Amino acid sequence: SITCSLIALLSLSAPGVVSLVVPQPNINATVAQNILLSVEYSCRGVATIEWKHVSSWGTTKIAEWKSGNYVNISTVYKDRVTTFENGSIQLLNVGMRDAGYYFITVTEEYGTNTYGTIIVNVYEIIYEDLHFVAVLFAFLAAVSAILICFMWLCNKSLHLFQKKTTHKLTASTTEEIELETIEC
Fold this sequence. Notes:
With 184 residues, the protein is of the alpha+beta class. The protein folds into 2 domains: 19-125, Immunoglobulins (Immunoglobulin-like, Sandwich); 127-183. The protein contains 2 helices and 11 strands; from the N terminus they run H-E-E-E-E-E-E-E-E-E-E-E-H. The chain has a 6-stranded mixed sheet with strand order 2-11-10-5-6-7, with no helix packed on it. A hairpin with a 4-residue loop joins strand 10 and strand 11 (113-123). Mean pLDDT is 84; it is low at 1-13. Residues 1-19 form the signal peptide. Keywords: Glycoprotein, Membrane, Signal, Transmembrane, Transmembrane helix. Residues 24-123 form the Immunoglobulin domain. The chain crosses the membrane at residues 130-154.
């Protein structure tokens, strides 16, 4: 755009002018996803870049570095942040606590600085809820199958018991009839 080009031209010609472009100021992510907090800065001198995270849990400094020099990443983010020369950072394996505001400050060696903000929303994956329902359904189906088998076995046992009882009754009535005919 024309504005960005003018700022870039000014920053190359005049010391103390810093420009910062944030192409995506709002990022939606899901838990365990990697996100890129993308920015692009320009300045005539050496710049210091600083990233901070602000949320309901407080403010945390993520990283600070000078272009082409040192990188200082806080211990909380040590294994989860990658820095880039253009000022961007990549945050690995985001969690619910990573939701909030991310502030970048670019300060030129002459003292001029500029700020940018990126809002990150982190959502939990709802597939976990569906997984719970599927497991519950499978459990209930298994219990139902076991109960049906148990009822079938009980029914078979009852039929066998009734058959034996009927057979005994028939045999004893036949003996009584035979005994009665003999007595006459």
